[in-house]
């Protein structure tokens, strides 16, 4: 009797699947790159092309114009006030939600996301209805000589409103993922709540805080909708950089408009680079990663 070896199973389809997977992957990458080139790359390139269309001298002259300098100063001032405020709020809100149990916790978590679901124009209009001349507190403020709407305080309030979720939303998932074991151990050893926060909680979320600060600062400097409602667009006084760009563009001063816009574009690029560095540097660290 002659032993006949059992036929080996024939593996079919693997090379085809591998080739098909490579083709699909390449097609998806090509579509993504083409989309980014048309939607992001070309508009960004056009900003710098238009800004330098008449040369460096005109570009620098547009940036040195008094109203442009006033817009830059106001933008930096508003960001310098709004960002630290949101850092404090974000840390406090995230710490309370992640580390404590209290009535209204779900409501607080939902309210943090409110600026993401409300149009910035609507939020600006709310401040006008509250603090404007015909608003709920308008007559009292006017009688006491306090200006909020069409002044710097109103711009700061509107900016704070649209930017306060960023730090809280970056820090909260980190605190929740880390739990309370380290803080409870510190309290057991005699540390106070503040000492546990400064020595354990805050160092564990420092990169999330920095990530949130980057996003918060970029949004604060680039905010248009809410600020346009409460500012009154008083040239040289209550116009931030985005508003100043719109004013120049409406006056057909395109070179100056794109010159100021190029500063905002550079801010966006710097923010993107720093964001990428943070994600690449600390994504694999359990206590220092950045949430997405």
From TrEMBL:
Annotated compartments: Cell inner membrane
GO molecular function: ABC-type sulfate transporter activity
Annotated membrane topology: Multi-pass membrane protein
Transmembrane segments: 27-49, 70-98, 118-141, 148-168, 255-278
Residue span, ABC transmembrane type-1 domain: 72-275
PROSITE patterns, per the entry: ABC_TM1 (PS50928)
Tagged with keyword Cell membrane: yes
GO CC entries: plasma membrane
Domain of life: Bacteria
Complexes and interactors: The complex is composed of two ATP-binding proteins (CysA), two transmembrane proteins (CysT and CysW) and a solute-binding protein (CysP).
Protein name: Sulfate transport system permease protein CysW
Species assigned in the record: Alsobacter sp. KACC 23698
Phylogenetic lineage: Bacteria, Pseudomonadati, Pseudomonadota, Alphaproteobacteria, Hyphomicrobiales
């Amino acid at each position: 009797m002659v032993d006949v070896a059992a036929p080996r199973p024939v593996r079919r389809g693997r090379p085809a699947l591998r080739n098909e997977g490579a083709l699909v992957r390449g097609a998806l990458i090509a579509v993504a790159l083409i989309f980014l080139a048309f939607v992001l790359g070309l508009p960004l390139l056009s900003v710098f092309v238009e800004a330098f269309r008449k040369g460096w001298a005109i570009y620098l002259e547009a940036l040195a114009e008094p109203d442009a300098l006033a817009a830059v100063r106001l933008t930096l001032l508003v960001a310098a006030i709004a960002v630290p405020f949101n850092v404090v709020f974000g840390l406090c809100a995230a710490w309370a939600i992640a580390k404590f149990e209290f009535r209204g916790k779900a409501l607080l978590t939902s309210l943090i996301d409110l600026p993401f679901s409300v149009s910035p124009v609507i939020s600006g209009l709310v401040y006008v209805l509250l603090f404007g001349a015909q608003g709920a507190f308008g007559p009292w403020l006017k009688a006491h000589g306090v200006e909020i709407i069409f002044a710097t305080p109103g711009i700061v309030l509107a900016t704070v409103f649209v930017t306060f979720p960023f730090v809280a939303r970056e820090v909260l998932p980190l605190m929740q993922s880390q739990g309370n074991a380290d803080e409870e151990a510190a309290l057991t050893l005699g540390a106070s709540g503040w000492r546990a926060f400064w020595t354990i909680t805050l160092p564990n979320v420092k990169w999330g805080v920095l990530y949130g600060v980057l996003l918060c600062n970029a949004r604060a400097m680039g905010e248009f909708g809410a600020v346009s409602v409460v500012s009154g667009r008083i040239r040289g006084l209550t116009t931030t950089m985005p508003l100043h760009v719109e004013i120049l563009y409406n006056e057909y001063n395109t070179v100056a408009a794109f010159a100021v816009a190029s500063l905002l574009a550079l801010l966006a690029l710097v923010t993107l680079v720093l964001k990428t560095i943070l994600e690449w540097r600390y994504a694999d660290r359990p206590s220092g990663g950045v949430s997405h």
